[in-house]
Amino acid sequence: MGVSDKIVIKALATSTGTSSDKIIKLFSKIGDLGLVAEELTKNKQQSTLFTKNLTVEFVYNQIRNLAELEGEGTVNKKIGLISELLTSASPNESKFIVRTILEQLRVGIAEGTIRDAIVWCFFSEKLKLKYTQETNELNVPKENQQEYSKILDSIQNGYDLTNDFGEVFRIIKEEGIKALEKIQLKAGKPLNVMLFQKAKNIEEAFEIVGKPCALEFKFDGFRLQCHCNNSKITLYTRRLENVTKQFPDVVEILKNGLKSNNYIIDAEAIGIDPKTKKWLPFQAVSQRIKRKYDIEELAKKVPVMLHVFDIISCNNESLLEAPFYRRRHFIEKIVVPIENKLAAAKQIVTENLEEAEKFYAESLSLGNEGIMAKNLSSPYKPGSRVGFGIKIKPILETLDLVIVKAETGEGKRAGWLTSYTVACYDDKKERLLEIGKVSTGVKEKEQEEGVTYEEITKLLKPSITETKGNFS
Fold this sequence. Notes:
Strand content: 15-25%
Helix content: 25-40%
CATH class of the largest domain: Alpha Beta
CATH architecture of the largest domain: 2-Layer Sandwich
Radius of gyration: 25 Å
Number of strands: 17
Distance between the termini: 32 Å
Largest sheet: 7 strands, mixed
Structural class: alpha+beta
CATH superfamily of the largest domain: DNA ligase/mRNA capping enzyme
Number of domains: 4
């Protein structure tokens, strides 16, 4: 929806009469802007003459309008729309309006739960499903397990193609489960990307994907799902965020380099040093993903090159069920290489371990993360981390690093330091050099194995020399 924490904080300040500083302090303490909105609405310091009871239709339309805002003055318009909603909202309504706008509902429901709920809604009687509250289990009679799995797969496939459980629900309700099979790919509407497993080495990768297989560079960039519908190009991240505006240069590259006006492709965008033309690490180009201003200037400083590694549809033909070798043929047919701007991902087809090791070494020497091994006969499975493609990356040696900065968490991690900037010591310059961030591998609860966020926070507090915000 393109709404940041800052926009919500300003909207809350406008609607409740509370200063932004006080809201930020409360947010730092609670870690959830939805709960902050609820608390502030309970204790409003101002009232509005023209409030009204909110309806589902009104809130829905306002949020839709919010998502469609663009152009000059967008930020102020968004603040105004959100403020209008919050002015008339009850404390509980405020909580969920803010969470919905920030796309952080925090209700403990994942995709699998929604999928199972749809099955329960439409097929519980037919499949004789039973829920046991004591054990929190959904029981499927043995004689119905095969049909249950088939229905689950059908719903999952419908979701993978639409990225919309609401649409899946509507189709089943109005047309029946069979209608999910009629869902067509449409360029411009993102679908869940196919994910890949990891292997320890090339030998293990060969065992999983089979021999011969396709080997490709695994680039140190970010994944883009590129759509072209009658020459209108839209770009999505692997999480299906629309980033078309952030990458006008990529849009131009695709216009000039692909011989089709209707397609969906999978590609990796990597940063290019404008002077040396060398490939840059992910950190160099990552700043472009969230950029809202000075986009063209940043595009000149950090241009990108697009490496196309898969294709999902071409000229209105779905290639989901096409074997990978055929999809690769389509890529080579429509991609017109542009030096330092566009190419089909470098690939070899081999069953020879020595040749594969040489290709792996070449990829690493160019600054890539490793290589991909792909089954030549595999279809494209949206949303699945299946064994059709395998990542092979080197196992890094253990490093002794120093935590030099830390950021507080949100939600249930509020009040803890949960994201750490780490540095190594440069003997020659006798100073610490920041090398990245770490935010995984730490536990939340004491009963879990390993160190907890709370323990690290207690250890770090005596060493804090400066704070920004309201950490205490």
